[in-house]
Specification:
alpha+beta, three-stranded mixed β-sheet, 4 helices, 3 strands, 17% strand
Length: 124
C-alpha cells in the first residue's frame, strides 16, 4: 500500500561536533538535556555515519591511524519520532567529510545516507 509522509523541519535541534584525531576509529561522547535513551555504541546513527565516511576516506588512502571524535549535545528527545537521530547522522556525515577533506558526489552521498535511514536524505 502507498504511504504518504509529511516532514517538517523544527527549530529544536541537537549540536554535533566532529573532530579529526590521530587515533583509529570513531569515539562518541553525549551530553545535554535529552541524552536519556541515546545509544552510545555502534547502533548510534551519528556514529555509524562517521564510521562510513571514515571507511571511504581509508579507501581513498587516508592513514589507518586517523580517526574521528564526535560530540553530540542532545536537545531532541530520543525515539520521539522527531528525526533527532537521523539529523544527527547527517550532521556527523557532513562534518566527517569536511574534517577528512572528502568531497563526495551528491548522488553517492544521497545513496549512502538512504542506507542509514530513508529520512536522512530529507535532513541532508
Amino acid at each position: 500500500h502507498e504511504l504518504w509522509t509529511v516532514m517538517v523541519a523544527l527549530a529544536l535541534c541537537d549540536r554535533v561536533v566532529v573532530r579529526r584525531v590521530e587515533r583509529a576509529g570513531v569515539t562518541l561522547r553525549t551530553r545535554g538535556p535529552a541524552v536519556a535513551g541515546v545509544p552510545t555504541d555502534g547502533t548510534n546513527l551519528a556514529q555509524r555515519a562517521a564510521e562510513a565516511v571514515l571507511e571511504r576516506a581509508r579507501e581513498g588512502g587516508s592513514p589507518p591511524e586517523v580517526g574521528l571524535e564526535l560530540e553530540l549535545e542532545k536537545h531532541v528527545p530520543a525515539e520521539a519520532g522527531l528525526g533527532g537521530g537521523s539529523s544527527d547522522a547527517v550532521a556527523a556525515w557532513l562534518g566527517a567529510e569536511r574534517v577528512l577533506g572528502l568531497a563526495l558526489d551528491a548522488n553517492e552521498r544521497r545513496l549512502a545516507l538512504a542506507r542509514l535511514g530513508s529520512d536522512c536524505v530529507f535532513f541532508a
